[in-house]
Design brief:
single chain, mainly alpha, 6 helices
């Protein structure tokens, strides 16, 4: 398997899906959540590639600020979140509680994967 560090828009999508499932949070809470998601992704990349040190990504992670995903539909948010989870499927990351929580949320919407909108959505979001 392979893994890569996703872009901030994919992190926004994953955080948005959690927001949709769990209800309102402040921008500060969403930013903290997004940073945790991105760090989880960095750890998975490190677990996948022996030459990568997750701390290389800390500057980008620490400057992250949550922003609502705009201009995409629910199918794109769901597919970007599934992309994110795939990129986090290395090493011990799937055993982390945040991974399990997000995976369980995506499972609630599994029926959407069979739609044309999901099929047409990008695998991850740029940015």
């Amino acid at each position: 398997m392979s893994a890569f560090l996703v872009g901030h828009q994919t992190i926004n999508a994953a955080a948005t899906l959690i927001l949709m499932a769990e209800g309102p949070r402040s921008v500060e809470e969403m930013t903290k959540l997004g940073k945790s998601l991105w760090l989880m992704n960095a750890i998975a990349v490190e677990d996948c590639y022996a030459s990568v040190d997750a701390s290389e990504y800390l500057d980008a992670i620490n400057t992250y600020t949550f922003a609502h995903v705009e201009g995409v539909d629910f199918a794109a948010i769901l597919k970007a979140t599934n992309c994110f989870l795939y990129q986090c499927s290395e090493g011990h990351v799937p055993e982390m509680s945040l991974f399990k929580k997000l995976d369980a949320i995506t499972e609630r919407y599994a029926a959407h994967k069979a739609t044309d909108a999901y099929e047409a959505a990008p695998w991850g979001l740029c940015g």
